[in-house]
Amino acid sequence: MTRHVLDIDDLTAAELVEVLDLAGLPASALPPTLEGRGVALVFEKPSARTRNSSEMAVVALGGHPVTIAGTEVGIDTRETAEDVARTLACYHGVLCARVLRHGTLVRMAAALDAAGVPVPVVNLLSDRAHPCQALADLLTLRQEWGSLAGRTVAYIGDANNVWRSLALGCALSGVRIRIAAPEGYGPSIEDRRAVEAAGGDLTVTADPAEAAEGADALYTDVWASMGQEDELAERRRAFTGFTIDDDLVGWAAAGAVVLHCLPAHRGEEISASTLDGPRSRVWRQAANRMHAMRGVLAWLGGAHPGPAAGPGTATSR
Ligand code: CP
Ligand code: NVA
User: Fold this and answer.
1) The whole model's pTM is what?
2) Angle of CA points 33, 36, 41, to nearest 5°
3) Is 96 marked active-site?
4) 8-129+289-305 has which fold?
5) Which atom belonging to ligand 2 lies closest to the Cα atom of 262?
6) pLDDT tens for residues 26-56?
7) 133 CA distance to ligand 1 centroid (A)?
8) Is 221 a catalytic residue?
């Protein structure tokens, strides 16, 4: 059966370790699993990191990336999501997409499965999940700490796509996850159940200091995600007090690191001095998007990490 990565819990805990191990290897140590093959990268929303890291990851594995604007193929406007998937699978070995609605990815994967077309679908961000980001986040933390299990990540902000995948990734990795969000912006009951079903140790609070206290990493994302721009004023009001700043970092464990998936809004979800300060690992995290993508694409192509694989050194920062 073709494996798709629509969220990080499409991987088992053991498979997640394999992907991180592959991501930690230099490109030269990986087999060219995409040699002579195309990879479609469809974007219904803007991107800097995901597009560029994905293209370069495909190139590193010997493949040819083709980036396609959502408007170009017109998912469910020019033709159905199913027909877009069937068409792109005629030319490409992997179909990666950043979509407005998570259901689009589910339909694409189902259409390929129903047709017996062995082309994996990879989520490059949907309204629900951002698994490739979570892989880079976990890779960054594993490089920082040497191992993941037993650590605590405190996420301060909106329980959005980035949080959902991060929380599931933490659950699969034995990392405790806390979230501090204002009322109405925290995880749903379904989200909590999903994290718990993945074995997660989840704490939900409306107090950023309570979440941050003793944590090994603090994490945040924008208050208004792509598509929520018209809610920005309301969200800025609701999230006042939920900024990661140097005072909040003071609540965390000594040596705690700060992550942000980027793009960042200095002075909103994170202060400039924290984002650009000594605890920040955001540029290593951004660089790791490419290594993580190479890892997941290699894994989907059948690569296995050798016994020498460890926390991962393949970073440019
Ligand atoms: N973090 C992230 O996904 O960035 P882009 O939206 O620029 O791809
Ligand atoms: N939550 C953000 C992540 C951007 C990488 C968004 O969906 O816009």
Assistant:
1) 0.96
2) 80
3) no
4) Rossmann fold (3.40.50)
5) 5
6) 999 999 999 999 999 999 999 999 999 999 9
7) 8
8) yes
